[in-house]
Specification:
The structure holds 2 protein chains of 2 kinds. By secondary structure, chain A is α/β, with parallel strands linked by helices. In chain A, strand 4 and strand 5 form a beta hairpin. Chain A has 17 helices and 22 strands. In chain A, 34% of the residues lie in helices and 25% in strands. Chain A has 3 domains: 235 residues, Rossmann fold; 160 residues, Rossmann fold; 59 residues, no CATH class. The longest helix of chain A has 16 residues. The relative contact order of chain B is 0.19. In chain B, a hairpin with a 2-residue loop joins strand 1 and strand 2. Chain B has one domain: ABC transporter involved in vitamin B12 uptake, BtuC, CATH 1.10.3470. A two-stranded antiparallel ribbon of chain B has the order 1-2. The chains are: A alpha/beta, B mainly alpha. At the A-B interface, helix 10, helix 11, strand 18, helix 13 and helix 14 of A face helix 9 and helix 10 of B.
């Protein structure tokens, strides 16, 4: 067994009095892929930021190649051979690929000028090593896809002779074919002796790539083991701290009369001639590829982009929905795809976010009933198990799953009849995901009708009573739970496109 | 009545002790506390150098002379909290002061001359608000236009003359109520009322929400456009009150308001802790910052430093404020 290239021992870190990392040990050897697992808020980001020299540990030591190091700045970590590819890629869009790769350490000519020929040639060489022969070194970064930009980031790390490469959720925003390609790149790097810290939520990637895995929970080290010693279920329960029996606990609910009926609804290119019924106690899943019109349909139903033609009936009564306010007052709630953008006012306290949609009801005269508001917020925190300091904590300080629970809590305060959930569990860790599914099950039992949009096929198949498949702005299939198979849904997701092209 | 569901308690809720009252005030109103501390420090230091600093006349100058700026800054704070800005308010105050003075010397009832500017101010700013909210023109552009129109229009109409021979009853800024100067009372009452309203009303809450994340505000059913128009109209009303306090503090009204009045008002808001990006801050901060300016201005005289340093000192304060804000944010991350 080779000695670790970098080892961290006893790492601790607190922010404003809260310990986010408690006495964690971690090490990486050259030529291994070491997966780092944990729920959001478990301390993964803090740990990798310490390795990258971005955070200073409160206590603990970092040893690189047997020598104790103090990283005062990111430059120190880079000099020690540690590079990081962050989730949000840090490239300059207006500069070319080559300019980005060698930014900060351009090769010089004898006279001290930047040696552009060398910059371009060496960038080409690095990209070729990553099997990226199709990428033009003179292309501006803003013209590249996410996957291509990621490879530029990796090339950038290699240009500094990185011995350890930290990858923070590298596949979070990649499509499947790019994921395969990235995994190939990771394997090549490993063969060349680079040690890789691989942060991901996706179990399949971890089992396909990792040599060892370390699990963190609540800022503490839970286990480090060889990948062969564990199975998926064990990893999940290590992350969550309790066994998870079923990821999709579909609760059986009694399905009642029609609440929402939509007839030939239209809005622009993405919502064309949509008709469906949604009944009390039902979960109607909407599947489709990105751009199929799923989210646009939700936005039209919620009045963000009012329908240009077609009919909407709420409990049999024709209604016009021209704004989110009208939708809300009719009993429709929308938990958006991007909670940071449309769901939450992040700098505001949990209490104020929870009450936001019902603030008029919570007021008497011109003033808000502060005690009632606080009571509602505390109840939401308790019932949804929102992990927080108190109800006055800004939601920006919560993890993704807990932020999502705040958005759901806000909308449940309005006692909706129809709840539209757009990607309810994206960017949410395993434990919180199961909790959100449980909440959905409880809601349908109480007669709420749920329209759930999801890119995750297992989620749609597992949670829905019925599903609509969309493609090219139209509904291409309506499938009952009993008849739904991944193949059928998958076929319908691409069906219409082919028909239209033909 | 609740539709919330009962999940099993999956994790022990971490019990954090609720911090003490003082700590919470400092945490929530950090900038306000800093400005207040600066005022107190200045008072102590300058009084030690020159005890006449705290004589009654000078206190009136400090707390009452700039009260109209503080009143205007209340409206400005609301506008900035929504993520907008108004660079025309100085010119508007000039116009409204002239309106009040002209009505007063033309034989209209005094009450009418005192109330009219408030409504004219609301009317003008409603137009601005509509252009910002519904026509979606950035507020800086709309108000730059308004600035030119109002300032140019005023000089053209009045020809730059002064209004004098104002009726004595009109000069309310020179009167006292309960032994205190009227402008001071206006400043205190309006600041506290606006603070409470912003903090405890649904309307106030929606202003913070709009400034914090306009898209989320729309998606939550807050009528963002209507709210923006209201905020601009209310800001116009505060400009009306400010114009009256300004117009009635001397025996004459000049059609040239203090130059850069709008910048002083915006600066007070920012130094008082209202984030220029919207979504946070209080009107207490902006009022305290106005008092701080007056204190600095007066202190410079009492310790024999040229008053021209005032602007430089305020400039330094802006930078110090922003720096303090950055440091506070940095500590939090």
């Amino acid at each position: 067994m080779t000695a670790p290239f970098i080892s961290l021992s006893g790492m601790s870190k607190s922010f404003v009095g809260i310990r986010v990392l408690k006495d964690v040990d971690f090490d990486v050897r050259e030529g291994e892929v070491h997966a780092l697992l944990g729920e959001n808020g478990a301390g993964k980001s803090t740990l990798i930021k310490m390795m990258a020299g971005l955070y200073k540990p409160d206590s603990g030591t970092i040893t690189v190649n047997g020598e104790e190091m103090k990283f005062a700045a990111t430059g120190d970590a880079t000099a020690a051979g540690i590079a990081t590819v962050y989730q949000e890629l840090l490239l300059f869009p207006e500069l070319t690929v080559a300019e980005n790769v060698f930014l900060g350490h351009y090769p010089r000519t004898g006279a001290g000028w930047i040696d552009w020929a060398a910059v371009r040639a060496r960038t080409r060489e690095l990209l070729d090593q990553l099997d990226t022969h199709d990428l033009d070194v003179d292309a501006k970064v803003l013209t590249l896809s996410v996957a291509q930009r990621q490879r530029v980031e990796i090339a950038k790390a290699l240009s500094r002779n990185a011995r350890i490469l930290i990858m923070d959720e590298p596949t979070a925003s990649l499509v499947e074919s790019d994921v395969q390609r990235l995994m190939q790149v990771v394997r090549q790097l490993r063969e060349r002796g680079v040690g890789i810290v691989y942060v991901s939520h996706r179990m399949s990637e971890i089992f396909a790539l990792a040599d060892r895995v370390t699990v963190l929970r609540d800022g503490a080290h839970v286990a480090t083991c060889d990948i062969g010693e564990v199975n998926e279920q064990q990893l999940v329960s290590m992350m969550v701290g309790r066994p998870i029996d079923s990821l999709f606990p579909k609760a059986e609910a009694e399905i009642g009369e029609t609440v929402l009926e939509v007839k030939s609804l239209n809005h622009g290119r993405h919502v064309q001639d949509i008709s469906f019924r949604l009944r009390r106690g039902e979960i109607l899943g909407i599947a489709g590829l990105v751009g199929s019109g799923r989210t646009e349909l939700a936005l039209t139903l919620f009045g963000m982009t009012p329908a240009t033609s077609g009919e909407i009936l709420m409990e049999g009564v024709p209604v016009r929905i021209g704004s989110p306010r009208q939708a809300r007052d009719l009993g429709i709630a929308y938990v958006p795809e991007d909670r940071g953008l449309q769901g939450l006012v992040r700098p505001m306290a949990i209490r104020k976010n929870v009450s936001m949609a019902t603030i008029e009801k919570l007021s008497s005269g011109i003033f808000i009933k502060a005690r009632a508001e606080a009571e509602r917020a505390r109840e939401a925190v308790r019932r949804f198990g929102i992990r927080c300091r108190d109800i006055d904590q800004p939601v920006s300080e919560l993890s993704g799953g807990n932020q999502q629970k705040v958005v759901i809590a806000k909308w449940l305060e309005t006692e909706p009849k129809v709840l539209i959930l757009d990607e309810p569990t994206r960017g949410v860790d395993v434990g919180a995901k199961a909790e959100i599914h449980t909440i959905m099950g409880e809601l349908v039992k109480r007669g709420v009708a749920i329209l759930m949009i999801s890119s995750e096929l297992p989620e749609v198949l597992g949670m829905s009573d019925r599903m609509l498949v969309m493609s090219g702005g139209r509904v291409t299939a309506e499938i009952d739970r009993a008849d739904a198979t991944p193949e059928r849904v998958g076929a319908a997701m691409t069906a219409h496109r082919g028909a239209e092209a033909a | 009545m609740s539709m919330a569901v009962n999940l099993p308690p999956v994790r022990p809720q971490t019990d954090h002790k609720r911090p003490g009252l003082l700590r919470r005030i400092v945490a929530e109103y950090g900038q306000e506390c800093v400005v207040l501390a600066a005022i107190m420090l200045l008072f102590v230091v300058v009084t030690l150098v020159n005890p006449r600093f705290v004589n009654a006349n000078n206190l009136v100058t400090i707390f009452s002379g700039n009260a109209y700026i503080a009143v205007a800054a209340i409206g400005m704070a609301m506008v900035i909290m929504t993520g907008n800005i108004d660079v025309s308010v100085g010119a508007l105050i000039g116009v409204l002061a002239t309106v009040a003075g002209t009505l007063a010397v033309s034989g209209y009832p005094i009450w009418f001359a005192l109330v009219a500017p408030i409504f004219v101010g609301m009317a003008v700013n409603t137009v601005i608000g509509v252009l910002v909210a519904y026509a979606k023109i950035p507020s800086i552009v709309v108000t730059l236009g308004a600035l030119s129109i109002l300032r140019g229009g005023l000089i053209s109409v009045t020809g730059g003359t002064w209004i004098s021979d104002l009726p004595p009853d009109f000069l309310i800024a020179q009167k006292r109520l309960l032994g205190l100067p009227v402008p001071f009372l206006f400043m205190i009452v309006l600041t506290i009322a606006a603070f409470l309203w912003m903090r405890y009303s649904a309307f106030g809450r929606s202003i913070y929400a709009i400034g914090g994340n306009p898209e989320a505000a729309v998606a939550t059913g807050i009528p963002v456009e209507r709210r923006l128009v209201s905020v601009f109209a209310i800001h116009g009303a505060f400009a009306g009150v400010a114009a009256i306090l300004f117009a009635t503090q001397l025996q004459v009204i000049q059609s040239t308001v203090p130059p850069n009045l709008e910048l002083t008002i915006i600066t007070a808001t920012v130094i008082g802790g209202v984030s220029i990006l919207g979504g946070s801050g209080t009107v207490i901060g902006s009022t305290l910052a106005t008092i701080l300016f007056a204190t600095i201005g007066s202190a410079l005289i009492f310790i024999n430093v040229s008053a021209y340093w005032l602007r430089a000192v305020i400039g330094l304060l802006i930078l110090a404020t922003v720096l303090a804000d950055m440091l506070r944010r940095h500590r939090r991350t």
